[in-house]
Give the backbone structure.
Amino acid sequence: MPSTASNLRFEVWGSPIRHSRSPELHQAAYRVLGLDWTYRRQEVTEEQFPQDFSSLAPEVGGLSLTMPLKEVILGHVADHRGPVDLLHAANTAVKNADGWWLDNTDWWGAWRTLQDCGGTAHQKVWLLGAGATARAVVFALAEDRPEHLTLVVRSPERARITRVLGETLGLSLSVATFDDLPTEAADWVISTLPGGVAPEAPGLARQAHSAKLFDIAYDPWPSGLATAWQESPHPVVSGMSMLVYQALGQLRAFIQGDSQERLKRENEVLEAMWQAIGPTPGADVAQPSVEE
């Protein structure tokens, strides 16, 4: 059931959190929809989470969760929806009359971003990293069916959970390390490394000749990887697009009670969200619109 209750407050939790653009996105949507809701950042560490979550004010209607809390919250809320259990991560917590429930909209944010750039079907994809965000990207890729996915990590052990997820979803998949990269050219390089880190990886920069870059990072921008791609003829896409789309999914959850159910006036909402953050970093790809 849609929620239009008055004077609700929503928050984004994580550490660090000062860089988050989520308040601008959510408040832009509230203005379009005429909701007198507020949204703010809250610095919350893994150690602080249990006490802060148990003592939330009654007017808080939902939370957006970033690292390191996407996995921490799973043990505090029993109602897991969407792909939360499969991904072992939640970025959205919603409170209704029956209590709290969790969802994950990161995968949809990644999927929509990739679709705006032509998708990954029948293409070779390198995915850098194997954490919670990487698992969301793997779930998104399973919707698109690339020809092959290579997980690139510092050690194969780090990729075990993400590798098993990809295999469970039926993806053609292999694991490589940063110090022993494949020689075959990729069509996409997707980085989920924190802070836009450009790893020491012989041969990675050569992929700029053949591959589009989607770097989940957006602050600082350009990231280290985006800088390495600056002479590339192929598009460079920042994580800002994923941030917008995952926020739209959260708004659907907060308002409609379902992250896959479109909002009323959703085209206007999404346009206002794009305008709120200004020009998107990595603007080789045109600013998209909501699907009809």
